[in-house]
Amino acid sequence: MSATINTRCERLRTLFSPHIRESHWTRAAGLVQDTHGFNAGTMLRKCLIHISLRRNRHRYGLLRATVRYGDIHRRGATSTAVMGDNVKPKTMDDLGGPGFLSTLNWLFVKGYLKKSQLMQIEHKKIYGPIWRSTFGPIVLVNVASADLIEQVLRQEGRLPIRTDMPHWRAYRELRNQAYGPLTEMGANWQRIRSILNPWLLKPKHVSSYTDTINQVVTDFIDRVAWLRETSGQGVLVNDLAGELYKFTFEGTCSVLFEKRMGCLNEVVPEKTLKYIDSVGEMLRQSQIVIFFPKSTWPYLPFWKKFVKAWDYLFNVAEELVQEKMKEIEERVKQDQNVEGAYLTHLLLSDKMTVTEILGSITEILMAAVDTTSNTIAWSLYELAKEPEIQEKLYQEVISVCPGDKVPVSDDIAQMPYLKAVVRETLRMYPAIAGNARVTAEEEVVVGGYVFPKKTLFHLCSYAASYDESVFPNPYAFFPDRWLRGSEEKFKQHPFASLPFGFGIRGCLGRRFAELEMYLFLSRMIKSYKLRPDPTGAEVEPITRTLLCPAKEINLQFLERKVEQEEPRAATGVSL
Ligand code: HEM
């Protein structure tokens, strides 16, 4: 290494010594030697990116990380942390972005409160893929490209934190309830995830839920027939997302508690309807409460509604837990076998207190229902608009499961197009349009900026999954882009669409949700041809904490066995 570079190295080392470990430094210095002719600024960038991506080095290698960084840099996505020899790293204060008043203007005057997913795209156009914004007491750093999302996630630390969710946690403190996987943090979060994970994430356990899920799918198919006849002029199903909500609630309760709730009966129990309303209400109020400082919450009507909704969600879960405990006690008394499904395993394992189980079950049930039902609703909505894609899916399903054969989990492994349909739906309609991470353990470098510990990063998943440079023609529903061997799949960035999140803090219900969606779609497509709402109504997504349809999705279900002439004369709509 030349003397000049050595001197510069030492100067940079002094400046960044708290952030650079010896091993990182040695490696970065080696790189400078390899690429002589680079100036000290380039070297610094290499050092920083090396540090920021160090957990990445085994998988991608330092060279690729550096090349990636170079790409971002050339596109003007980040600002260099270097100013000749006067090296001054850029910080959060150097980031552009809307202040609090401007944010209020965007949300309440320009009307983005309900479509904040689109605000990600608009802000990215204005500020580039990294910007800072202020929401009441909260300052966050938004990252909206696959590269930058990767950089944040690779530095999430040993015990990742999504956000500290002060209002959700405050409810639990108010009512003396335990935190569940969504709200818990640190070592206790790790402990409860290690107990909750096996029966929801291990493939062999998840595939054991196939028959239970298939029974619920059968009931839903019957319900579709009933809805078409009673309220759909023989063909329509109105408010599909609402109907699917009942399906996922029933499916989740069957798997978690081995209990049928009667949600798919002709008359839906009052309790289920109230549960559905309470989840909606809690998510709506949650979005508003967070804008206000914690000290004002007790005086806010939004907070009271938020608390009331959570009370109901906890009450329903508590009843189910109590019931299961009684059932187990009875069986033990009668010397009967007490094997069972998810809740039974938790209760029998003795690794969590009953209060902890209640905290976790409430959150799991809440997290399971909206996410999966909306994703299925969007799949059906897109399939109805695209008869060719639907036909391709139908042909795949009947080639694996001809005649009356009901698909089971092993069959799904042979249905790549079905998986691509779900993947594409999740790209276009990610149930969580914006994920988050708080980098609690260390300072991090993202996009060439140095951020202090406890920075809250907003991962703009929606904007990233509509990035034209990763997904050409991003507004088109094109499942083929996910097929192995397709040209596009080859170029995709693995962090451009992460619908179930990432790493050890990733979705607890991913495998269960996927199985439920695959079984549902494969069976529905075998039974019915889908066609759009005869009125031609288009449905946009809105953000209500989760991404949801802005209005009812109504679709036509044409029976396949007795193929109907389409379109139905009564509708007068050409398809
Ligand atoms: C299509 C369906 C679903 C989608 C798109 C989805 C998406 C997500 C995402 C993006 C996260 C955040 C992960 C991260 O921060 O990296 C998450 C977390 C979570 N999900 Fe899901 N989810 C779905 C279904 C489910 C189901 C069915 C369950 C339960 C059976 C569930 C339970 C959870 C829980 C408990 C967490 C919190 C995990 C933690 O913080 O440790 N989800 N989900």
TrEMBL record:
GO cellular component terms given for this protein: mitochondrial inner membrane
GO function terms (MF aspect): heme binding; iron ion binding; monooxygenase activity; oxidoreductase activity, acting on paired donors, with incorporation or reduction of molecular oxygen
Keyword Transcription regulation attributed: no
Pfam families tied to this protein: p450 (PF00067)
PROSITE patterns linked to this entry: CYTOCHROME_P450 (PS00086)
Domain of life: Eukaryota
Annotated keywords: Heme, Iron, Metal-binding, Monooxygenase, Oxidoreductase
Binding residues annotated for heme, in chain numbering: C507
Keyword Metal-binding: yes
GO biological process, one term: C21-steroid hormone biosynthetic process
Cofactor(s) listed in the protein's UniProt record: heme
Similarity annotation: Belongs to the cytochrome P450 family.
PANTHER family reported for this sequence: CYTOCHROME P450, CYTOCHROME P450 FAMILY 27 SUBFAMILY A MEMBER 1
Protein name: Cytochrome P450
